[in-house]
Amino acid sequence: MFELENIVRKNILCLKPYSSARDEFSGKDGVFLDANENPFGIFNRYPDPYQKELKKKLSELKSIAPENIFVGNGSDEVIDLAFRIFCNPGKDKALTFSPTYGMYDVSAEINEVELIKIPLNESFQIDLKGVKKYLNDKKLKLIFICSPNNPTGNILINIEWVLQRFKGIVIVDEAYIDFSNTESFISKIETNPNLIVSQTFSKAWGLAAARVGTAYSTSKIISLFSKVKAPYNVSELNQKAALQVLNNTKEFEKRKFIILEQKDWLEKELNLVPIVKKVYPSDANFMLIETTNANKIYTALVAQKVITRNRNSLVKNCIRITVGRPDENQKLISALNNL
Ligand SMILES: *Cc1c(COP(=O)(O)O)cnc(C)c1O
């Protein structure tokens, strides 16, 4: 049985959160002399600490109640808060796969949590036998599953297998879910009390500069996130930016369509380039390619002012390429053919 109280750090369970001036009165018109703000200017007031309007909109879009939504300063805040809520520094452990998103590593290190990494199999899927060995470790509190996975690009199957067997928290990082044909795990929160789904405005929603990330989970888990976050963790400007893109889904769909069309074009073109040995199938807006010599090709591309991501240290001779605008993708193919 999953018992949330057994997984949360004791000091966090007992924590009495900071009560901000705006907690006591939430109306819009009034004479606000409560928060030591400057009465002059346009960005002079603190933002809504609960991001109510944004959560209401997300709630409609994702078909989940506002109590089940956390909005953070990028998904990187979600990752960091998860470590801080569930893992006692120097004692508890987390688990993820390899290769995957590098921030799990960095955040684990910062929070002094040992991160176990299980290599993905040849198809870049979860090695179930490898995971099984760790599932009963009492010190293991968190499992990070990135799907579609970065940098391999594929959806991970068998997430439910892990969810059903692990008595700690499973975080499914869906930064790229909007590019894939697969359904989000948000719909599985109701039946899985140990599931957190994280998403972001940085990729398909085109707001990387704004730093807005979201987490979806049970209201109990979300209230822990809200308790631990900085009171005004998402600025007014960034809440507005997120609302603006959510209110223009037509543009969102149009851009996504172009990106996916370009992905197909790139895949076809890349397969014709002699120094490209393999193009891995992708459910995201990037592709992992195996080349004859990643270090050399990466550097030669930089010299032509085309910047890709050298993933040679993670997957031998592989480069990760983001799908750009049509003109940018054309430049990439010409640059590769010039080498
Ligand atoms: C890009 C990316 C994110 C996004 O992080 P933000 O802090 O929201 O910009 C999260 N997870 C993965 C796997 C990513 O590749």
Describe the structure.
- The chain folds into 2 domains: 4-247, Aspartate Aminotransferase, domain 2; 250-337, Aspartate Aminotransferase, domain 1 (Alpha-Beta Complex).
- The protein is built from 13 helices and 11 strands.
- The protein has helices at 4-7, 10-14, 21-24, 52-62, 75-86, 103-110, 128-132, 159-165, 219-228, 236-246, 249-270, 294-303, 326-338, and strands at 69-72, 93-98, 114-119, 140-146, 169-173, 195-200, 213-216, 276-279, 286-291, 309-310, 318-322.
- The strands form 2 sheets. The protein has a 7-stranded mixed sheet, with helices on both faces. The protein has a 4-stranded antiparallel sheet with strand order 8-9-11-10, with helices on one face.
- Helix 11 (249-270) runs parallel beside helix 13 (326-338).
- Bound molecules: pyridoxal-5'-phosphate.
- Pyridoxal-5'-phosphate binds next to helix 5.
